[in-house]
Structure formats: C-alpha cells, structure tokens
C-alpha cells in the first residue's frame, strides 16, 4: 500500500545541512496498523509527513498504491491527498467553526455535492460518538472529543489510509485508550491502513500489527509487534520496552546474580499463556523452579506471558526441550 | 454657559459631523477593500509561507513601509494632483478620501498580515493534508481563523482614520477637524474647539466599543 524507498531528508538549519532521515526503506501493507516509534528528534514526524508529501524527500521515492507521489504535479497531489486522512497531536481544528463544519470542510475541499455533505457529516458524528456536540465549537470540547472530531474529519472523504501524528500524545491515559480503541475499530470495519507515529510503546502494543523503530533517522528494527516487543534486539527498542514495562534488563541480571540454578526467560504467546505448561513440564521432568520476575498482558488481541525463571533441580535440559516443543520461546540468560 | 457657547453654530457642527462620518465610512470601506487583499498577499508571499516569494514580499514590504513612514500631513499635500485626477477636487469629503485611503491601507495591511501570522500553522498543514489549494486555505481557514484579529485591526484603523480625517482639515478636507482648525484655532474660538474635540472623542469611543463587540462575538477560543 505504502512504500518508502531509500528516503533521505535534510533540513537547512542555520546554514548547515542537518539530516533528519538517512535512507529509510519501509513497506506498509494494506489494512494493517503500522506503528513507527522513536524518541523525539528521531525523524518520525518528518517520516509521516513524507507519506502525503507535506515534506518532500531530499532523495528517494514514495509510492502509494503504486502511484509515485514524488512525481505528481500539484493538482494530482491534491487529489491524492484527498484520499489520505491525517490526524494530529494538537488536533488542528478550526476554532472558528463548529464540530459539524470542521467535519464538512474536507468534503467541501474535495468538491462534494452540497446535498451529500450533511448526511455524511451526521454519519461521521455518530460514528465517533459526538451526537450531542455537533454545534459546539472546539474550545468547548475536551481533548479526547477534539481528537474524535479530528478522526471524523480525517475519515470524511472515505480515505484508504489514515496517518496519525502523535495522535494521543496530548491526551491522558484513559482518553488515549478510548481513542486507540476507536482507531482499532475503524481499522477493522473499514479495512483502513493506519500509519501511527508515537513515542509510547504502550500505544504500539495496544493496537499496532507491525512496528518500525526509528533512531537517528534510520529504521533500526522492524517486524510484528509481538516479536519486536518480546524479543527486542536494538538498544533503542530495548529502552522503549523497558519504559513500557518498567523493568530494566541490566538491573535484573544484577539482582539475580546470587540466585542459584539456571536462569532462563520463557515467552508464552496465544493460548499457551493461559495453559498450565510450566506445571506439566515440571511434573514430567522433576525440575524445581522459582519465578524471578514476570508479566502477563496483551499485545493487541494476543495474550502473552514472559517469565524469568531459575531452574534448580531435576532434568533441566529435558525440561527446556519440552517447553520448546509446547511453543514456548526459551532464552538462556545465565 | 450661554455666553460661552456663543460662537457655536449647531447646524454647522452637525454638517461637519456628517462630513467626518462620510469621510470615515468612505475611506474605511476602500481601506478594507484594498488593505485586506494586500495583507493576505504580504502574508502568503512571506518567508516559509504558502506562496513564499522573497522578491515580491520585499517589494510589497518596501512600498508599505515607505507609505507608512510619510507623515500624513505631507501625504495629504503630496497627493493633491492624484486626488484631483481621481475625484475632480482636492477639497471636501471627496478630496479627503483618496489620501485617507492611501494613508491607512498600508497600516491596515500590516495588521492583517500580523493577524494571519497568529493563525496556528497546524491548521494550514491540516488543510494541505486534506488536499486544499491556496484559495481554499485562505478562505476556508486563514480568514475565518484570523477574523477576530482582523476586526481588531479594522477598529484600530478606523480610529486612526478619525484622526487622519481631522488632519485633512489642513487642506480643506471638511468635517470636524476642518471646523476645529478654521474656527477653534485660527479664530481662537475655544468653545468650537472643545465641542469638536468632545464629538471626536465620542466617535472614537463608539468605534472602539463596536470593534470590541465584534472581536468578542467572533472569538471562539
């Protein structure tokens, strides 16, 4: 659906070239929720703006549904943009217009027939649950409500792609959750491709299918969220996971230094998460174990568990084989 | 009290008030009609804006600055041939309006430019992301969002026009200023001076009040 090929972008800052993106390749599939995570200054805001060409790449190609965006003339680009919705951290609503007028605006821009606008706006207002607020001005709404207006506005022209620029960063955790749930629902209902940039791993974990980790203008890790989240490779990815989970791998290794036995990390996903796998294997092989740390949660709709365990007695090798046979990922820590 | 107001011809005061209002109304309409597009153009051609054109901006900006730095009394005199060419006279209400418009338009255009700069860039970006063209961005986003600021600018401009209009009495522009200069100043009729000043003061207060009301009415923040 969206292809970024060797994208480079530099800015002139005080007469010097500063490289924001240093050769990014990404391929985003139709219908997926794709997360791009990075610290501030990693270039993620620039990256999402390159997709609808609000920023022009210094080098590289942007393809959307096989159309090369970078080669379009101004008129064709505007038409293309009408099929790509975008929501923003600070909502960017017209303060001088009501909720309904804000949502009608992209339809006006796209030249919709007047008679079609009102029913479409009513439908969108109902979809985002703002029926009682159609005639209010943005200043009268809460942050979450403003973002719902932003989402309704972005969806008005029935786009195939929705770009989210830190869409929940200005919202409190509870509101963030409800906005993310709305995005996930829309993705399912409409088969919309969503590209979401954020600096919060929790946002990625909650709704994304795949994630790319951006660091200093480069994609350092990309893959399914479960893989990247549970088995992070790059230090930047690890730091994001740590922030989300409040665990520090290095500290843990120190803490477990005096624990006897073999320390392993077991990762359960899907049905295995709620099965008595560890007990079964312990009975079969006569091992003793103590749980050093652990977490059980969800990644999007998939439950997972991750336990750090010390095995102290019995046939440990056989136990590890049996765990692996039951689909549990075993990583030896010590 | 009666003896103090002996010099006052109320019919003449009334006529002068009407003339001032006519000068103000006429020049305000033309000032807005010319200044608003000029302000939009200044804004759009400015650095890092939608139609960034450094050369065009530099030229417009220079012309605006030159016109703004000419003292209005001088502008009144310098413009006499042009005024005669446009209106056929350099006297009275008709003779005052062209210099008033030329004096106030650059001022108002700068205020419009400033008001537009206050509009959140994110709104322009959102409009671009929707595929809006420049015209749609100007009329759909920039002008509605800047409306309170533009009304505030128009109010300041109207009040400036009141004082400019009074100054045009120097070249026989008619109105309250003309009365104040001819009778109040040249004939030492202090009572005429006081009455005209009070009337101008009341006019300014009313304009400010209307302006403030409009700004509040159109502010949604």
Give an overview of the whole structure.
The complex is a heterodimer of chains A (334) and B (221). In chain A, 37% of the residues lie in helices and 31% in strands. In chain A, helix 3 runs parallel beside helix 5 (143-155). In chain A, a hairpin with a 2-residue loop joins strand 4 and strand 5 (67-68). The model of chain A has no long low-confidence stretch (mean pLDDT 90). Chain A has 334 residues and is an alpha/beta fold. Chain A has two domains: 2-244, P-loop containing nucleotide triphosphate hydrolases (Rossmann fold); 259-332, Alpha-Beta Plaits, CATH 3.30.70.260. In chain A, the strands form three sheets. In chain A, strands 6-7-8-3-9-10 form a six-stranded mixed beta sheet, sandwiched between helices. In chain A, strands 2-1-4-5 form a four-stranded antiparallel beta sheet, covered by helices on one side. A four-stranded antiparallel beta sheet of chain A has the order 12-13-11-14. With 221 residues, chain B is an all-alpha fold. Chain B has one domain (10-218): MetI-like (MetI-like fold). Chain B is built from nine helices and no strands. Chain B has helices at 10-45, 54-69, 72-78, 80-87, 92-117, 121-129, 134-167, 175-185, 190-218. The radius of gyration of chain B is 20 Å and the shape is elongated. The model of chain B has no long low-confidence stretch (mean pLDDT 90). The chains are: A alpha/beta (334), B mainly alpha (221). The A-B interface holds A 52, 54, 77-82, 84, 86, 88, 90, 92-97, 105-106, 108-110, 137-139, 157, 163 and B 120, 122-123, 125-133, 136, 140-141, 144-145, 147, 218, 220-221.
């Amino acid at each position: 659906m969206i292809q970024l090929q060797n994208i480079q972008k530099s800015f002139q800052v005080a007469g010097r070239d500063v490289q924001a993106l240093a050769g990014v390749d990404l391929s985003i599939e139709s219908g997926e929720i794709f997360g791009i995570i990075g610290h501030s200054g990693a270039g993620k805001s620039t990256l999402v703006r390159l997709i609808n060409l609000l920023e022009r790449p210094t080098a590289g190609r942007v393809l959307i549904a096989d159309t090369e965006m970078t080669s379009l003339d101004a008129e064709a680009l505007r038409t293309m943009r009408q099929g790509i919705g975008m929501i923003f951290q600070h909502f960017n609503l017209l303060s001088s217009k009501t909720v309904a007028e804000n949502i009608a605006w992209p339809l006006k821009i796209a030249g919709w027939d007047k008679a079609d606008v009102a029913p479409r706006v009513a439908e969108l207002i109902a979809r985002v649950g703002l029926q009682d607020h159609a005639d209010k001005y943005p200043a009268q709404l809460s942050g979450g409500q403003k973002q719902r207006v932003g989402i309704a506005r972005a969806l008005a022209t029935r786009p195939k792609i929705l770009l989210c620029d830190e869409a929940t960063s200005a919202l409190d955790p509870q509101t963030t959750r409800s906005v993310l749930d709305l995005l996930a629902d829309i993705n399912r209902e409409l088969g919309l491709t969503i590209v979401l940039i954020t600096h919060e791993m929790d946002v990625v974990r909650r709704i994304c299918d795949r994630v790319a980790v951006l660091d200093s203008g480069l994609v350092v890790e990309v893959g399914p969220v479960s893989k990247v989240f549970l088995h992070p490779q790059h230090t930047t990815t690890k730091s994001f996971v740590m922030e989300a989970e409040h665990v520090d791998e290095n500290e843990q290794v120190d803490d477990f230094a005096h624990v006897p036995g073999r320390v392993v990390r077991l990762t359960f996903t899907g049905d295995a998460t709620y099965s008595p796998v560890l007990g079964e294997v312990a009975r079969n092989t006569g091992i003793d174990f103590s749980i050093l740390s652990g977490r059980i949660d969800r990644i999007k709709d998939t439950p997972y568990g991750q336990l750090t365990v010390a095995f102290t007695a019995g046939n440990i090798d056989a136990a590890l084989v049996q765990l692996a046979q039951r689909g549990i990922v075993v990583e030896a820590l010590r | 009290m009666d003896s103090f107001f002996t010099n006052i011809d109320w019919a003449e005061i009334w006529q002068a008030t009407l003339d001032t209002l006519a000068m103000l109304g006429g020049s305000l309409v033309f000032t807005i009609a010319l200044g608003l597009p000029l302000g939009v153009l200044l804004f759009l051609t400015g650095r890092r804006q939608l139609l960034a054109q450094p050369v065009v901006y530099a030229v417009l900006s220079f012309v605006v600055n030159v016109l703004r730095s000419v003292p209005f009394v001088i502008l009144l005199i310098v413009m006499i041939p042009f005024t005669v060419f446009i209106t056929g006279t350099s006297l009275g209400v008709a003779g005052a309006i062209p210099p008033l418009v030329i004096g106030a338009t650059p001022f108002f255009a700068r205020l419009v430019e400033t008001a537009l700069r206050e509009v959140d860039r994110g709104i322009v970006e959102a409009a671009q992301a929707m595929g809006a063209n420049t015209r749609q961005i100007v009329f759909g986003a920039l002008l509605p969002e800047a409306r309170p600021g533009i009304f505030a600018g128009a109010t300041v401009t109207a009040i400036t026009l009141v004082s400019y209009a009074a100054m045009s009495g120097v070249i026989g522009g008619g109105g309250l200023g003309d009365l104040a200069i001819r009778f109040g100043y040249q004939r030492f009729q202090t009572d005429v001076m006081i009455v005209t000043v009070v009337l101008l003061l009341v006019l300014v207060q009313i304009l400010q009040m209307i302006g403030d009301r409009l700004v509040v009415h159109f502010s949604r923040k």
